[in-house]
């Protein structure tokens, strides 16, 4: 049975480092049933320069003999206030991801997985892929998205809202769907299994040390 990898680039936002410096980043949503991915659904934000970095890293991989697809060209007159330019760039970035994710060799690249399913900076992606961090690639992917839980109490509140704690029924969790305009619900795990898995991810995240080993 053919495995599916669906990816969308959406929701451009202007981010400001300070009063004088700003950039646009984009949300990358991924939905897949492929065994190549640690998470079957994920959402991260990346900027154009990070896409450029990813392409360079993949191209430098000696196993990737074929030429990679091009990114939308860098426009010296690109304006963050020009909706058409942003839309065209966003479409080009999405098409780039769709094409590279068709390659089994790209799907085996750790940097690609960290780019799509973690919130690490590019420097930490390089360090993690090279084994110079205290956390693995899988741990980095699993911890992404757990930062919003500042305490176990916060996490338990969310679990309480998602699940009926009075019975061991299937847990109905609302997730972002295959397009920005839809949501999907899945009933995949029993309540106990779901709680144990989420709490395990929470504890794993808070036990990680982000310090890069020298």
TrEMBL record:
GO terms for molecular function: phosphatidylinositol phosphate binding. One of its GO terms (biological process) is vesicle organization. Its main location: cytoplasm. InterPro entries: PX_dom, PX_dom_sf, SNX10/11. The keyword Amino-acid biosynthesis does not apply. It is a peripheral membrane protein. Keywords: Cytoplasm, Endosome, Lipid-binding, Membrane, Protein transport, Transport. GO terms for cellular component: endosome. PROSITE patterns: PX. It is found in: Cytoplasm; Endomembrane system; Endosome. SUPFAM superfamilies: PX domain. Residues 4-122 form the PX domain. It comes from the Eukaryota. This is Putative sorting nexin-10. It comes from Scophthalmus maximus (Turbot).
């Amino acid at each position: 049975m053919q495995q599916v990898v669906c990816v969308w680039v959406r929701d451009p936002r202007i981010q400001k480092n300070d009063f004088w410096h700003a950039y646009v980043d984009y949300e990358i949503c991924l939905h897949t049933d492929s065994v190549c991915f640690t998470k079957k659904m994920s959402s991260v934000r990346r900027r154009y320069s990070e896409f450029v970095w990813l392409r360079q890293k993949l191209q430098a991989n000696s196993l990737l003999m074929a030429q990679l697809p091009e990114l939308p060209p860098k426009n010296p007159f690109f304006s963050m206030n020009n909706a058409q330019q942003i839309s065209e760039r966003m479409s080009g970035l999405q098409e780039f991801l769709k094409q590279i994710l068709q390659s089994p060799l790209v799907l085996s690249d750790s940097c690609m997985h960290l780019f799509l399913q973690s919130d690490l900076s590019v420097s930490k992606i390089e360090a993690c892929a090279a084994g110079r961090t205290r956390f693995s690639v899988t741990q980095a992917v699993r911890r992404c998205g757990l930062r919003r839980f500042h305490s176990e109490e916060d996490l338990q509140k969310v679990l309480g809202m998602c699940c009926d704690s009075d019975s061991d029924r299937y847990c109905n969790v609302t997730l972002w769907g295959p397009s920005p305009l839809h949501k999907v619900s899945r009933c995949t795990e029993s309540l106990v299994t779901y709680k144990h898995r989420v709490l395990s991810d929470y504890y794993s995240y808070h036990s990680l040390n982000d310090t890069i080993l020298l």
